[in-house]
Amino acid sequence: QKRFVGDQVLRVLTDKEEHIALLRELEESEDLQLDYWDVPSKLGLPLDVRVPSQSLQLVKTFLESNSIPYTTMIEDVQKLLDEEKRAMRRARKLKR
Amino acid sequence: SCSWSEFFSFYHTLDEIYSWMDYLVARHPNLVSKIQIGESYEKRPLYVLKFSTGKSRYRAIWIDTGIHSREWITQATGVWIANKIATEYGKNASLTALLDCMDIFLEIVANPDGFAYTHSHDRLWRKTRSINPGSLCVGVDPNRNWGVGFGGLGASSNPCSQTYHGPCPFSENETKAIANFILGHGNVAAVISIHSYSQVLMYPYSYTSQPAPDRQELDALAKEAVEALTAVHGTRYKYGNVFSTIYPAAGVTIDWTYDIGVKYSYTFELRDTGCYGFLLPATQIIPTAEETWPALMKIMEHARDHPY
After folding, report:
1. pLDDT of residue B1
2. How far is C-alpha B110 from the geometric centre of its chain's CA atoms?
3. Using CA atoms, how far apart are residues B102 and B31, in angstroms rounded to an integer?
4. N or C: at which end does chain B have fewer Cβ atoms within 10 angstroms?
5. Do B31 and B50 form a contact (C-beta atoms < 8 A)?
6. How far apart are CA B20 and CA B259, in angstroms?
7. DSSP class of B188
8. Alpha-carbon distance values, B124 to A4, A37, B115, B255, B280 (Å)
9. Mean pLDDT calculated for residue range B142-153
10. Cβ of B34: how many Cβ atoms within 10 Å?
11. Sheet of A35-36, strand order
12. Is position B301 annotated as part of the catalytic site?
């Protein structure tokens, strides 16, 4: 199964039209393999992006150099998935 | 040995959900039946639970969950809702009155290939699993594949995009089966397509900024439904048309259903509460389902009481 170790989900706050344009530009960069959990379209709506670990530094630098505010919503995607798997295993034991 | 509250508070695989559907039918044979409306690209059955008290063809409500496979809270909520409908009939006066004159069709796993793939290969898979000729990228966004405004704003022509609209409208078995079913039924009064995670309740349109002709009524009902939802656990929702509330999106379910005449066409985006996105912990399944239920009931009751 695909692993997401070190991947983060960044919550990007768009308060200027130019931010949206920049985020669309970023989305086009296929090398970064970003997974936009929403479409960058409206001012004031937070935009969550899953960033693979190998692209994190580039993306964060891009956001900071363009003064686009963001927070880290999920520190490590794989940790949440591991917990989810553990919960499903517990459920199976209960079912048996 | 597992109590039902425990069962509903965990995420389950496709096989487990399909088995549970058989169990529900067996427990409530006079109310619930399972019908197959087609098969997925990878030949999995597309099952719908039919809740019906009548022999004749009543007006109907269609509900689907999980057309985007990674939104696990929606399939889990679908399971809870199915159980709620089955167990509340005869106890809840409003639901009983509803089922005495309408049928409810519930498709819990609207994208079974994608859902199975989220369990076996990639937890964050969103699309269908159809092969795109000429591209290494797999899958079509089944919520951009409907025959309205196809290929317009908010849909991508790039097969590698998460919002790829597909080669033509209804290219995907998963969307075509629903469309065929609704058209074939001919008496569907409400369609509720359930997604996650932005906490909004929306109505048409998505592909145009033009207001839907029934905008005022749809908006007032959305407000009422959201108030009922928030009253349960205090979860905050927005509501409005898709175009202005979140983003333009062409080729989506509820625009198509609205344009073929299903006036009460709504789409939910259930929880996140701002921390987990698609990775909502299983502890939030029951609260999410509990708060969604009264909002669903508001829409279903309105459809029952306002035939058109």
Report:
1. 43
2. 8
3. 12
4. N
5. no
6. 34
7. E
8. 10, 10, 10, 26, 12
9. 97
10. 14
11. A35-36, A46-51, A8-13, A70-74
12. no
DSSP code per residue over chain A: ----TT-EEEEEE--SHHHHHHHHHHHH-GGG--EESS-S-STT-EEEEEE-GGGHHHHHHHHHHTT--EEEEES-HHHHHHHHHHHHHHHHHHH-
Average model confidence (pLDDT) for chain A?
A: 91
Interatomic CA distance for residues B238 and B202, integer angstroms: 8
First to last CA, chain A: 25
Q: Does B124 touch chain A (CB under 8 A)?
A: yes
Q: How confident is the model at residue B43 (pLDDT cuts 50, 70, 90)?
A: very high
Q: Choose among B78, B77, B103, B75: nearest CA to B89.
A: B103
In tens, the pLDDT along B7-21 reads 899 999 999 999 999
* Record: contact A84-B7, CB cut-off 8 A: no
Diameter over CA atoms, chain B: 55
How close, in Å, is residue B275 to chain A by CA atoms? Answer: 6
Asked if the interface predicted TM-score (ipTM) of this complex is over 0.85, the answer is: yes
Those residues whose C-beta lies under 8 Å from the C-beta of residue B91, and which sit 6 or more positions away, are: none
DSSP secondary structure string for all residues of B98-117: HHTTEEEEEES-S-HHHHHH
| DSSP H stretches of helix in B197-259 | 215-233, 242-245, 253-259
Angle at B116 between CA B183 and CA B68, to 5 degrees: 50
How does DSSP classify residue B161? S
**Least Cα separation, residue B283 to chain A (angstroms):** 9
Q: Are B40 and B113 in contact (CB under 8 A)?
A: yes
Helices (H), B9-64: 14-27
For residue B277, the chain A residues in CB contact (below 8 A) are: 9, 37, 48, 73-74
* Per-residue tens of pLDDT for chain A, all 96 residues: 899 999 999 999 988 889 999 998 898 888 999 999 988 777 888 899 999 999 999 999 999 999 999 999 999 999 999 999 999 988 887 766
Nearest to B160 among A30, A88, A91 (CB): A30
Distances (CA, A) of B224 to A89, B102, B230, B298: 39, 21, 10, 7
Residue B230's alpha-carbon distances to B17, B226, B227, in angstroms, are 28, 6, 5
